[in-house]
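Example 3.
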Amino acid sequence: MPAPMLIQAESVSREYRLGETVIRAVDAVSLRIKQGEFLALLGSSGSGKSTLLSMMAGLDRPTSGAIRVRERNLAELEADELARYRRDTVGMVFQSFNLLPRMTLEENVELPLRLAEVDRTDRQSRVGEALERVGLSARRRHRPSELSGGEQQRGALARALVNRPAILFADEPTGNLDSANGEQILLLLHEIQQSLGMTIIMVTHERPLAERFANRIALLSDGRLVSDGAQR
Amino acid sequence: MRTRDLGELAVRNLREAVLRNSLTTLGVAVGVASLVAMLSLGVGLQTLASQRLTRSGLFDAVFVTSQRNFRGPRQPPPDAAPKRDSRPLDDDARQQFSKLSNVTEVYPQIRFITDVRYAGKSESTSVLGLPDSSRSSGAFEGMTGVYFSSPTAEEAILQMEFAKLLTDQPPSLVGKNLTLRYAERVALSKYADDEALLDAMMGSGKPGGISPGSISIVPHEKTLRIVGITESDPSAGIGGFGGARVYLPLKTAEQLHVAQPDDVQAFLSGNPAKPSYMAMTVRVRSPKDVPQVEAAIKQLGFATFSLLDATKSLRLVFTVFDLFLGLFGSLALTVASLGIINTLVMAILERRREIGILKALGATDRDVRSLFFAEAGAMGLFGGFFGVALGWLIGSALTWGTTIYLHRQNLPGVKISYVPWWLALSAIAFAIIVSLIAGLYPASRAARLNPVEALRYE
């Protein structure tokens, strides 16, 4: 039985205005992503891959076109509905980790649960579960500044997973890591995709990593989708 | 986000920039303190004035006279009750007044001219009977000697100016005796069988007959012990009109049966048997009860007079006074609110990325706005608490300083600053409201931040 369609980008464009100049960061991209896929958005700097990811993650809205996630057009959602989509359906990992420096690791991981108004009794077990999955149970009381880059990214991954999202968006997750730590993160993502059946959409400019871990690569150049093919 | 989580995050954020947030909170506290100190001064002075005036007996009293002999300083209003046959101001009337609601005390004005004899000197002056309630009127504070030992004590208090007429050393009079020579009112029926007395009174010529209930006025003497000498004139509040120089306990004065000016009129009107009084004082529970009691007494057919209008003017003055003090106090809080705006706007700049992360994790605009509101409100709450405490300390210091100054002037200390519970709670609530208003702009600005731009911010 084929996997159901999860995300459909239909002729999505995103324009920015810089004075009189209009910059088209994403230009009429159409993309269909099935549930459980590990898609790598590949492209050089300024190709529009991060902009496309932001729109699919509900952080930004397209200037034209539609992005449908489970048949709901994100472009038509109210701001609060979009926030709930990010909270309940999406998990995000960033290049610069984006852990809150004043909070401990477990408090950072707990944050999405606070926003989702999960009961306090459930929170501790879910935080423990997420930290255990990324191998950071022993570092739960540490602040981000006391963790290595790889640990911070694993912590960010735990935070992205704690709400049990359907889609995990990763924007250059290995960009700030050495190759060993980068590989460890991608192994984790792969393991999560395999074990949880989670859909993962990753932006990267490192073709070897994309080819090794993703099961599909979409190549963007100057805001356009230039190729879209299955790897495995 | 749940309120508890919001509170925890807000307090955590405040703790992170502890110096800046403490200084901002201190600014709010100083603003609230100035407001509380100003208003506590206003409330304290108003309370002091009210207490003093109430204790003076001027504002919780209705002065009653009989319409037949004296209407009092104020004419009855045109819509007053229709004039009935004028009634005597006697013990029956006194009983009726006592039964009116909100009346706490009714006593007649026993005032008479007497000849005071002391150490061979003789001085003519006015005597007034004081009810026992005048003990707490405040008029005898700082008096040389003590107040009457009992309501029926055969004791006297002298007014200082009069005491100086008797001796060069007025304080030395305390403990000494003086003699009052006065005109006693005697009901003749009491002596109806005493022919000798009748003869003495009527002289050699036999009258056509002594009508029953006739009265006679005979000179009499009474020796009293001087227990105190007062600088002030307490008679203004107690009796309604000042001017007495010697004071006795009211019951002692009543037992003297001194002839009153009304006796002559009673005699002429043919009903001299019952003693009547020139005026009575009716005390009420609080100044606000005066109009109702005054109206009821007028209904009974008596003329009344009160100083209620004066209290209304006084309240107006203090309301305006409080308003201005409050306005000056609020200025400081307004300046403090600018500090809150500044702190929170700075926090938005510093925490731009954090706001982006929160939004990326699913925080709604409302969550972000509420978080900044909670931080502003927390600064207001803490600032309000510290401000009230600081304001109370400033007020206490003012009272302390004033008391020291008054003691140096040989005057009793007074509490000029007073922080009632409603002022403390209102000041804290006001601080929170001002802080929330100050947080309005920063919070809505934070909520409107675009998450992509916020996340890009370094």
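Chain A has a mean pLDDT of 91. Residues 117 and 179 of chain A are 37 Å apart (CA to CA).
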